[in-house]
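Teaching note: in complex prediction, the entire set of molecules is handled at once rather than each chain in isolation. The prompt given to students was simply: 'Predict the structure of this complex.' The entities are:
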Amino acid sequence: MAPEGLARPPREDTSKAGAVALEGVTKRYGAETVVEGVTVAIAPGEFFTLLGPSGSGKTTTLSMIAGFVLPEAGRIRLNGRDVTATPPRLRGLGMVFQNYAIFPHLDVFENVAFPLRVRRTPKAAVTERVAAALAMVKLTGFERRYGRQLSGGQQQRVALARAIVAHPPVVLMDEPLGALDKNLRYHMQVEIKEIQRRLGMTVVYVTHDQEEALTMSDRIAIMDRGRIAQLGPPREVYERPDSAFVGRFLGEANLIPVEARDGALMTRGGAMVTAAAPPPPGGAGFVFVRPERVALRPAEAGGGANLLPGRVRHVSFLGNVVRYAVETAEAEPLLCDAANAPGARLFAPGEAVLLSWRPEDGRLLPQ
Amino acid sequence: MPLGRLGALLLLAPSFALLALVFLGPILWFLWASLGELGSLAEILDEIGAVLGARAVLGAIANTNWIALIVTLLVLLIGYPVAFALARARGAAFTLILVCIVLPYFTSIIVRTYAWMVLLGRNGLINQGLAALGLPPADLLYNRAGVIIGMTYVLLPYMVLTLYAAMKAVDPRLMQAAEGMGATRLQVFLKVFLPLTLHGVAAGALIVFILGIGFFITPALMGGPRDITIAMLIEREIELTQNWPVAAMMTLVLLGVTLVLYAVYARFAEQARGAW
Amino acid sequence: MVTPLHAGLRGAAMALLCAGLLAPIAIVVIVSFSGDGYLRFPPESFSLRWYMRFLGDPRWRAALGNSLAIAAMASLLSTLLGFLAAYALVRGGLRAKRAIVSLLLMPLIVPHVITAIAVYFLSARYGLIGIKPWIAVTHSVVALPVVLVILQSALQTVDPNLERAAMVCGCTRWGVFRRVVLPLALPGAVSGALFSFLTSFDELMISLFLAGVRSETLPVRIWNSLLLEVEPTIAAVSSVLIAATVLALLADWLLRRLRAAR
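The expected output is the structure of the full assembly:
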């Protein structure tokens, strides 16, 4: 049970406490535009993730929300207030850095107490709030230790405790779990979500790990070369990407080039494809299908839409899934993920098979 | 960045002010005022020609360069193995060698010079040793030999520390690869290690030479009447005859050469990436 | 492969070299304790008379006092200025950084004699000869590069994210400096102060011209004495200077050990 003091932050006067808004934010370094026209409205209490490969501009965007970097154009609003020109210390944020940034010359208690000491919080309140924050990250008892005596995961929790101790309405996180091993990462993800829910704070999270983004976020903004490629809840961006880039970034994807010919969509190999979307402009595009939506059965005669004959080229056992790479008449091998269920039919390399998928699982994407 | 460009310049301002007030300003003013006494630019150039043509000055220039060159070579010959040993040493050996380099480096130059005077004098340690062996005394003080020995000792740490940095930067796997391809240890040294440290050699040699041509204290104390360096001449002009214009002219030459060499050194130092 | 003989020869060569490097300094120290009236090595007797001579002589004592006072002032000034400059260079994101560093290191490259007479030119005109604070200021110019190199290195080890974290936590720039940068760079600053003190304490060239009669420093006095005769009192004084160096190096080493242990 969380102590009373930290159960819910006091409701601010403005109903927009915790709201983050970016309007046309642009950042240039010399001739290079690193962030271009980014516009987002993040609701209070939302877990919002900026996802993208390195160089996509996500960290720069976060730095601008924090106030370390000044945008060339656009506005940044926190809780409805324009903070574009406000220095970081007046923005009332919490922040967790990728390399934790624990002050090495202070012990855990003083690290977590730091934001309170700077604001001259009275001693009794400091002790109480630090204790509450440490309890929340499950580090009670570590007060007198120093950063170098802690493991990576523990340091990360100290960083988290420090970020939340002053009850900021918005917390920024810059790839905080990148340096942890996979197992620990998963547990920290759950813990972070839990803390966020309990405190009702808005989180703006930056990561390049799509799995992490899908697990934790209420909404994801996928960034590509400084622009937002797509924005939406995890399920939506995963199942209905708007572009090949987004489709490929969020997971394994089959992208089959198709053309409109004689009123139907045909693959290069001559198979017919139907998809629940209008034909692409210019008459050419990709059909996007997730490997887990592709079914594999032994080769048989017969035709129809969304059927591709092929030969199994490679079988990978991935733990919970068996992945087949199948050679077809198309240029690239297609991937099919079959659940590793008991009694499932296993195919061997070289076997002739038939790939199929439902029309509604295929999505037409432009070039 | 927590600090904007303006903030950075503000923090640098006091240091710039100090440099301008106590270093650049005086040097420029001294040159300007002293040379200005001579009249127009043409007259100045004439005078410079005359002064630099004087036998004493030419002699001093020749001495200075010659001494600096020999010292540079000696420092290189002694310094390379020492730096090599330092780069390979571990633990106590490393500390010992480092102390042997760093302690003299931070000891006052006058103390170091005095120490050699004690050693090299007529009744100094070296000659006492030679006498004990029944050998005639060696004339090692108040002459060229003394100056060279003294300057080599003072300038050695600069070379060693520069070379050490360059040697440390050599990836040991490169040498392992060469050995794996069948090279003998001598070949590995000559064909792999040595070439990779050459920029350090160049940087070290340049810095030693640059410092060497400006030397005053050691040649003044340990040299003889034929071992006058440019720096000594300049000092003499001021202390004895207060002849500012002549001093200024020689300063100009020495300064010019120093700055040109420093510019060359700066390019090498970029590659050497070592700070001494 | 390295044979034992090979290793033994190498070890012997190194030992010889180390002895050679330290010998001059060691000999000075030993001679300073000799009881003989002339320079003889090894000394036939041991005594402290040269130290007594040194400390008993008012001129030597004055020189020591002058050196200490000037070095303290120079150290303070150059460490302060050097700290600010180093911080600006490490965090300022200046494009001309390399040029600025080259400029600030110039006093080490330009022959001391030139700096000395140029400063003398200025000082003679304005009656600044023999003024200790002014001498300290001139020493700072050659001590500043030393501080700069040490502190640049020290500040580079301070993670910039620590400063950003402090800013987000509500610190003003001064607060970041006071609460984060200063504590973490303090060992470097002390190191810088020690070596700038030493640089000024050992400085001869500028002091020769600027000391005048009333502000004779220890190195200047040694120089003047050496031109007269090479006598053992100088050895005692030199040993004091050597002791200062050893103390500074020791203190720096201890500092490093302490910092590593934290």
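Point out the following to students. The radius of gyration of chain B is 23 Å. The longest helix of chain B spans residues 55-88.
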